[in-house]
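sanity check this chain:
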Amino acid sequence: MADISLADIKALRERLGTGMVDTKNALVEAEGDIEKAVEILRLKGAKGNAKRADRSTSEGLVSVVESATAATIFELACETDFVAKNDKFIALAAEVGAALADSGAETLEAALAVVAGAGTVGSLVEDTAAILGEKIELRRITRIPGEHFAIYLHQTSKDLPPQIGVVVAYEGSDAETARSIAQHISFADPQYLAREDVPADAVETERRIVEEISRGEGKPEAALPKIIEGRLGAYYKQVALLEQDYARDNNLKVAKVLQDAGLTVTGFARYKVGA
């Protein structure tokens, strides 16, 4: 049997992040051949990945990368906050981001197939999952084309990576106000840019609900149309960015803040880990 030195074990553990016992056993099986030991550990990890396939991933991070013409926001998910703050998990997010930045990928399927190192983004995620011993997945991505971008990443806990991320595509030159709008979105969580963007079926569902509520409250029949429209207005303020009160000054509408700053928002996305 080949002599297995502590230096070899240490080097391999630092390279892969594997446990002491697993690392030593792999080196013994590989008769001291480090590259063969890496292969053994990866195969063992791949089998573990299959067993973990049905586990839930409610932790992780949100990140955003830019190219000259687009920004891509993505969520990288894992099982525990212990792994979410692990250096190898954070490094994985950086590698995934670097691969996606100029890839043009617009769907999750396309993103997983993007070349990353000697493999793909998908294989890179699987390899890291095997090393860290948890289910890890690239859960979703959104690519937003635009002229300029404001990015805001928010840590809900100081010892964790960003849990909420926002990217805003805009036209104009006031970067400071654009960033404040990204911060507003992180707080207010609008689903659409303008009221015209809200799907008709969603509006009709809301209209039906508020009408039923208003009738149930015994409101006068003649007053119902005005009451219903008022409550629909409140709904639009919940879901449409341009209808919302500005988080920094609720006497102002977001639409007015943008107008005064000479900005036009052309698109946005907000992600929250696990949402």
User: Anything to note?
Assistant: The CA atoms of residues 61 and 163 lie 5 Å apart.
